Amino acid sequence: MNIVGDRVILTAVAPVDLDFICDLECDTAIWSFEEHVESDREAVKRKYAEQAESAHHHNFTIRLKKGPTSQPIGLMQMWSYVEHRQSWELGYALLPEYRGNGYGSEAAKLLLNFAFSTLNAHKIVGMCHCGNRASSKLMEAIGMRRQGVFRQELSMNGSWHDQWFYEILAAEL
After folding, report:
1. What pTM, to 2 d.p., does this model score?
2. CA pseudo-torsion sign 26, 31, 34, 35
3. Quick one: pLDDT band at residue 130, thresholds 50, 70, 90?
4. SS3 state at 64
5. What is the pLDDT of residues 26-55, one digit of tens each?
6. Cβ(154)–Cβ(161) below 8 Å
7. Does the CA dihedral 66-69-73-78 come out positive or negative?
8. Rounded-to-integer distance, Cα 152 and Cα 160, Å
9. Are 11 and 2 in contact (CB under 8 A)?
10. Which residue, 132, 134, 151, 168, is most buried by CB atoms nearer than 10 A?
11. Which pLDDT value is given to residue 166?
């Protein structure tokens, strides 16, 4: 499945993408605001293989529409957050050299549209470490609103950190 935007294309994660996904998922610099970064590449491959069989996970590789479209630049994910409430959670990562150019927000908007139109989502949520300004800026750029703070939610490097909670409703898109 492909979701095509003006400058990016979201392609369903396929076996050909797994080396890129492993590089991305295992890079501690990309996930500096996460509690845990997986270091076992085989565990990452197993996770994505299992999720490919699930109707509750949708993983997409972000590719540039123009230029070397075979080269992935990031990852967009949507997974069931609270199934009976039709709530889904958004996740993403973009290679550092492609940040700040609007590719992430375009890809996230495409995924929101997919979730609301195809998955019949009622609500999309997203969460980020309170210090992750780039992530909070992206969620706000796509129309999500910060709804609250999970105080001392994340345990990292021997201390507790707050996490921001964002959401957008289908009626707001």
Report:
1. 0.94
2. positive
3. very high
4. strand
5. 999 999 999 999 999 999 999 999 999 899
6. yes
7. positive
8. 5
9. yes
10. 168
11. 98
